[in-house]
Amino acid sequence: MPIIEVEKLHKRYGETIAVDDVSFSVEPGEIFGILGPNGAGKTTTVECIEGLRRPDSGEVRVLGLQPGRDRAELAQRVGVQLQESALQEKLKVREALDLYASFYRQPADGDELLQMLGLQDKRETYYRKLSGGQKQRLSIAMALIGNPEVAILDELTTGLDPQARRDTWELIERVRDRGVTILLVTHFMDEAERLCDRLALIESGTVVATDTPAGLIQRVDRGQRVRFRPSAPVDDALLTAIPDVTGVSRHGDEVVVTGSGNIVALMVTALAGEQIVPLDVRVEQANLEDAFVALTGQKLIHDDHESTR
Ligand code: ADP
To answer: Which residues pair with 152 in a beta bridge?
Structure first.
């Protein structure tokens, strides 16, 4: 049985159609991502899953239950990452965790969670004294304190520095390894590509595609692009003669070869036969960003790690 099932979800706010026919299902033990630009309908979809909003039409099932009807039961079994403003500034880390633990029938071990999140030294620290990264990790602890079967994490690494983001990704993988199914909402390509087993690409309230990151990339695979500077003049014919090379072009003194398969090795060998060495070799492959652009005709607006939400 899928952990989360969303079928033909539709939700509008007045004239604005926020979600227009969204369907996907999340299997046990997955890290499933909802990826899309700001305004795509991600939060509205997740709020319907959390039972905070009632869909205009469509079905949502979480652990076989209906979020609108079975909210109390689901609150015990689904962990939701708190938004930053939700915690009182004057609570100490340990007090906040104890308070939230008291809401649950079978809470997790708070000390163990703090240890896992690298917050063990902050037990007696006031919430307001935590750094951005520490607050973020505490919000993940809050999502896990109820020992949930499912955790819903929204814009997990917004505002974190690169090292803290990588640490958080490792942490989420450890959480998944403990058997928690994870629904991750993000507008960061790198995060989705690195962390998610499967993804639903959402744009303008609809699901454009659902697949593994590799599967999505493969759909638009433009092959490889290899760039290098030859140590001596090279004839295009030498390169176009290589099987799987589809094109050769030049930019200044740089040669750009496109193709698929093992073209790098074959190219190096062909050049070596002419006593030419490829210098400054760079291999570029399609990534999730390329897939997103190809599938939606749109770019995600944010290249930085700040949110405008
Ligand atoms: P995302 O999470 O992908 O940024 P949202 O679900 O927040 O997308 O928003 C989808 C669309 O619905 C946007 O056009 C947004 O402006 C609109 N919207 C979201 N919440 C409300 C609301 N409470 N009232 C009116 N419009 C809303």
So the answer is: 80, 183
